[in-house]
Amino acid sequence: MAAAKVVIHGAGSVGCFVGGCWQAAGVPVSFLGRQSFAAEIAEHGLSLADFTGWQRRLDSVDYRTDPAVLAEADIIALTVKSGATEEAAEQIARHARDSALVISFQNGISNLDVLRRKLGQRLQVARGIVQFNVAYLGEGRFHKGVAGALYAEDRPDIRALAATVGDGRAALKLSEDMTGVAWGKLLINLNNAVNALSGKTLLGEFAERDYRLVVAASQREALALLKRAGISPAKIAAVSPGLLPTVIGSPNWLFKNVFLRSWKIDEKARSSMNDDLAAGRKTEIEYINGELVHLAEKLGVDAPINGAIVRLIHEAEAGRGPLRAQELRREVLGR
Ligand SMILES: NC(=O)C1=CN([C@@H]2O[C@H](COP(=O)(O)OP(=O)(O)OC[C@H]3O[C@@H](n4cnc5c(N)ncnc54)[C@H](OP(=O)(O)O)[C@@H]3O)[C@@H](O)[C@H]2O)C=CC1
Ligand SMILES: CC(C)(CO)C(=O)C(=O)O
What we know:
Blueprint: E1 6-9, H1 13-24, E2 29-32, H2 35-44, E3 46-50, E4 55-58, E5 63-64, E6 75-78, H3 85-95, E7 101-104, H4 111-119, E8 124-130, E9 134-136, E10 141-144, E11 150-153, H5 156-165, E12 172-175, H6 178-198, H7 202-206, H8 209-229, H9 244-248, H10 252-262, H11 272-278, H12 289-299, H13 304-317, H14 325-333
Parallel strand pairs: 1-2, 1-6, 2-5, 3-10, 6-7, 7-8, 11-12
Antiparallel strand pairs: 3-4, 8-11, 9-10
Helix pairs in contact: 3-4, 6-8, 6-11, 6-13, 8-12, 8-14, 12-13
Bound molecules: NADPH dihydro-nicotinamide-adenine-dinucleotide phosphate and ketopantoate (KPL).
Ketopantoate binds at residues 107, 132-133, 146, 188-189, 192, 271-272.
């Protein structure tokens, strides 16, 4: 049987890396995205690399800017930022075949609700997540800076895709509990905002315990809310969700020797929210920490720590510069 045709919808950092790895593994892939990427990839090819020194270059890449390409897809891998989901869903509704499957590889939780509301009557929608970080280095070069895989729902069509993709740099792990996996990822993504507010690389931020204490406090608040809501986050990191705040908030020597040793992060890696702030783009804060603030509202309780972080990111979007570790700790934790 021929491999399913994939269209990467929103081919930026994650989409180009994942689609490039899948194409290299033998999956027929077309990319749908912006003219700036189309031009750079046409000129330089698509180059993939990771933190181990691995490299791969693809010369023949089908990168398009016309959403009509969606009509060719058996599987649409959605990799637009969360704020662009509605518009992407409208394009999918207009162009995709009824038999197409949409897999959202976006951070956050509520993108799936948007997709199901807009497309659920006609198309199948599945949840995926990306466990690693990808940076665009210019001239068609995409760099995976953190170890990890992709996760997606365990169903026959995704199982077949996972088999073709194999165990390369964008391997697909299958799960029957993608809601739990997405909440597990959200707990890890609570670091994105602190990393963005620090203005530093992930390693630069992690070196200062005051930053980590803010992340740990936001995770504790999140775990309490999830417990109240009856949601069980799945384990997708080296430690289980309940232990994350203890590990992240641990003293420097312990954190460096235990946690950082087991999680491969290269020196330049930053969170995607840090990249957004640096580029002057609107961040996904409302879909990460904001998701917890909305959950708290539904439960009739407060989420002061995540609420403060959401406010600080909006201030940063409006032009406020990076915060030093002690300053951030005082602003969020009040001590
Ligand atoms: N980068 C990372 O390391 C990680 C990112 N993620 C998640 O993956 C998702 C994608 O992130 P990332 O790859 O960084 O984002 P990028 O901004 O790099 O890529 C998305 C691309 O899609 C384009 N786009 C938006 N709407 C459309 C549309 N309707 N049709 C075609 N192209 C469109 C954007 O253009 P424009 O900018 O003009 O809107 C942009 O070029 C996010 O949810 C993010 O949180 C998860 C793990 C790691
Ligand atoms: C992989 C990770 C957690 C890196 O911060 C990420 O999801 C992101 O940058 O959005």
